[in-house]
Amino acid sequence: MPVAVGPYGQTQPSCFDRVKMGFMMGFAVGMAAGAMFGTFSCLRSRKTMMQSGGTFGTFMAIGMGIRC
Length: 68
Hints:
The chain is an all-alpha fold. Helix content is about 70%, strand content about 0%. The chain has one domain. Helix 1 packs antiparallel against helix 2 (about 45-65). The model has no long low-confidence stretch (mean pLDDT about 80). It comes from Lates calcarifer. Keywords: Membrane, Transmembrane, Transmembrane helix. Belongs to the MGR2 family. Pfam families: Romo1 (PF10247).
């Protein structure tokens, strides 16, 4: 599979890198949303943040995978 080269000789990220980046962005956004909604219950806050981050990160990774 040929590697796309950008205007300044830079290589474009691979499909796996894009999926990984989408998951990380989604995880960060989900963690922030979980922090906002999870602050009401201090003991479950971390659990809510991780669940929200994982769910949103998975959907972002799927979306990036479809775009490849």
